[in-house]
Amino acid sequence: MAKKYSEVGSKRFSLKKLFVYLFLITGSLLSLFPFYYMFVMATRTNREINQVPPPFIPGSNVVENFQKVLSNIDFFGSMLNSFIVASAITLGTLFLCSLAGYTFAKLDFKGKNVLFVMILVTMMVPPQLGLIPQYYIITSLGWLNDLRAIIVPGLINAFGIFWMRQYIKDGVPFEIIEAARMDGCSHFRTYWNVVVPMILPAFATLGIIVFMHVWNDFLWPLVVLRDPSVHTLQVALRALNDARQVDYGMIMSGTFWATVPLIIIFLLFNRLFIQSLSEGAVKS
């Protein structure tokens, strides 16, 4: 009798596990389909894309479409500009936001909670409202058509401070901070030698989010970068959309190859990204 119940329970567990795997596989395929179809369009001509039904198998025009992209814009130069901007902002955000997060999480000073609430309130303000004041400041500094106009305003953000503060508060025991202080470590040395090695998963998560956001940013670079030599990739891709004749294959080719660096960055740091999210789930 016990063996019979065991077989029934094992069968139910297997069916449940099978359903979970099928659900995850289906969700993964649905998530990857837009990227796949973007690649399909990047390998087809306009006539093939406009067919009914549309093609779902890659074609043979991948090289020709990308050559059209290179003939219309400085693709690799713009990609280099985007990489410089995204890397600089990501590194600056990780350092400054983690330092501020450590301060709010582990140090006591007058007005700490009030200041933290004020920082959180800025997350409710639409970034478009600051467009004109930021443009005025950048113009006064003489930074138009300069990558500093994008890098400097993006070096720190409220979400990064909030994320690091929450992770450090729960992920770094206060006893370790006290032990470091008793050994004679300064606040910065405690942060650099003790806290930073313990929050690498949080670095990976915030780094991926910031890098992707900056890489895909369009509005602010479009406002302050008018010289094509300093265009970021998203601004440069705008030139491919000719109102007289839209070449969807060329546009999708440029868009697809502009997305590849984001996929590479995520694959390099996805283990720490998943570790950060799983640790947060366990703690909560």
UniProtKB/TrEMBL annotation:
One of the GO BP terms on file: transmembrane transport
Membrane topology of the entry: Multi-pass membrane protein
SUPFAM superfamilies referenced in this protein's UniProt entry, alphabetically: MetI-like
Record localization: Cell membrane
All residue ranges annotated as the ABC transmembrane type-1 domain in the record: 79-269
GO CC list: plasma membrane
Entry's transmembrane regions: 20-39, 79-102, 114-135, 147-164, 191-215, 248-269
Keyword presence, Cell membrane: yes
Keywords: Cell membrane, Membrane, Sugar transport, Transmembrane, Transmembrane helix, Transport
Alphabetical list of InterPro entries matching this protein: MetI-like, MetI-like_sf
Coiled coil (UniProt feature): none
Similarity comment: Belongs to the binding-protein-dependent transport system permease family.
Protein name as catalogued: ABC-type sugar transport system
Taxonomic source organism: Halalkalibacter hemicellulosilyticusJCM 9152
